[in-house]
Amino acid sequence: MRVDILGIGVDALSMAECAARIAGAVEAHSRLRVVTANPEMICAAGKDPDLRRVINSAGLVTADGVGVVWAAARLGTPVPERVTGIDLLEALFPLASRRHWRIFLLGARPGVAAEAARRVGESCSGIVWEASHGYFEPAEETDVIKRIGDFKPDLLLAGLGAPRQEFWLAEHEGLATVSIGVGGSFDTLAG
Ligand code: UDP
């Protein structure tokens, strides 16, 4: 079930249910685009119909922040709990490790995504990684898209900042089985 928060449909699912939905999509090779909708994004979407469309057309929209959980409760349509991008990743990596998922990290400053992959790989071996920084010039974008396409990721994580990553993933939906906009998560994972 989706609950409406200022024109954005947010899935009323727990953290475990969101992770299970994503894992199920990867395993079934069923395309899924995920948006973790935080309060800033929901407010911005109120003024930007294109952003609203991009979020509402995602297959899974999570309540990213206590403010969203609070708003849902206030509107009388509660959602179970906050589901952030980093929490989702931490739930998914152990499974990805066992199932040898191919994960492409796109975003953050040069070296950060690769370091995030290295760090996660220390405890979750078996994941096949590829990474690219998020400061490519428009002229370099074709190369980035080709690298992702050639890699054929099960999971494409875009940490380009919101809402750019949401627009980017919607525009390049065919590149991966599952894609998630994860904001500054690579910086966190790289430590
Ligand atoms: N970023 C990027 N390319 C850009 C601008 C930003 O890859 O052109 C990255 C930035 O390095 C950071 C992430 O996008 O890793 C955005 O993180 P932030 O926490 O500012 O964004 P939010 O989580 O609020 O979306």
What does the secondary structure layout of this molecule look like, with pairings?
Blueprint: E1 2-5, E2 8-11, H1 15-27, E3 32-37, H2 39-47, H3 49-56, E4 60-63, H4 66-74, H5 85-99, E5 102-107, H6 112-123, E6 128-132, H7 141-151, E7 155-159, H8 164-171, E8 178-181, H9 185-190
Parallel strand pairs: 3-4, 3-8, 5-6, 5-7, 7-8
Antiparallel strand pairs: 1-2
Helix pairs in contact: 1-5, 2-3
Uridine-5'-diphosphate binds at residues 107-109, 134-135, 159-162, 183-184, 186-187.
Structural commentary:
The protein has helices at residues 15-27, 39-47, 49-56, 66-74, 85-99, 112-123, 141-151, 164-171, 185-190; strands at residues 2-5, 8-11, 32-37, 60-63, 102-107, 128-132, 155-159, 178-181. With 191 residues, it is of the alpha/beta class. The protein has one domain (2-190).
Measured distance between first and last alpha carbons = 36 Å
The H/E string reads EEHEHHEHHEHEHEHEH
The computed structural class is alpha/beta
Low-confidence stretches: none
Bound molecules: uridine-5'-diphosphate
Summarize the main sheet: 6 strands, parallel
Instruction: Tell me what portion of residues adopts beta-strand conformation.
Output: 15-25%
